[in-house]
Queue: 2 jobs
Job 1
Amino acid sequence: MSAVPSPTTGRQKPTGTVLPVPQPSISQQFEITAKDNGKTVVYTITSRFSLILDQQQYPKEAMKVTCQPAGVVGSISNVPPVAPPLWITRYEGVEPGECTVTDRDFSVTIRIVGNQTPANAIERRPVIQRLRDRLGAVDIYAALAASVRITGVSVEPSDAWQRLASGR
């Protein structure tokens, strides 16, 4: 970087190129296996990924998931089976943070980052699901109705919102 005099003050001001802050490379690999031992994989919030290991070498009972902060990933329950001796577990990125998955001598780091999408590309379904989980089906409708009243806009709730709020 060099310096040139400012035309208004005569002081030296730096010139040059400002380098962008590098963004983590988002993984396109959604199945983690023993060959990924020692790696770090990066996913966005709402990304789902599976861990598939051999039960004889890495017993599922010995697996430990340590996250900072707690709640970075959530467990997915309805996972298709794999052929023995393999076992599978699936997770979803819930909030930014980092988890270490260990099983005997196997270790992989999972980093969850915020969604790297434009602000106008909002994913409504995960937000609504999180609201429903936190507020409950009836309260989400009340919260939506209250937000409409707060903004001063008079809107009649649609049948779709009522079905969404009731979980149907």
Job 2
Amino acid sequence: MSNAILNYIDSFYVFVSDLLTLDELPELSLDDKIETACAYSDGKVLINFDKFPKDNSLFLFMALAHELRHAYQVQCLESDEQDYFSEEQLDLIQNELSNYIPHGNNYKNQFIELDAFGFAEFIINTCFGIKCTYNQTFTQEEIDKIHNKANEFKNIYSDDEVKECMQFAEFEPIKKDFS
């Protein structure tokens, strides 16, 4: 992978972390032993490039935004100063992380996963101007829930806030014009 591509990925990573107001930038680590393309574990975002679809270049960005959202969820559990999640949602996050369902029918219906998928969709829509599509493993009901969650993020993050974080990270979106 060229340095230009790695720099682009890095600036995207910093942008999303800044937008989420992560206290610490999670380490980004290559790991060909994980069973998925991307995972968040023990303060690290792990990537297995062998698991990424070859015909979907935006999948990497969607996966990174998704995993960084998990980092944010964990940060919120550990912070007394967060104001995004309600106490009930924090309890749900804690319960789902303690009893995590890594795959199968209930995986995508977990609150933490819907939140992460919705955030990732919001980022892809906002940065690249592209509507997310999902493979056949997603039901229409799951897709609708993700779309609804993504729309919620439009009310949380203003275009100005997104633009400011992009400028901080020196991230240039490919498709959307923020001028």
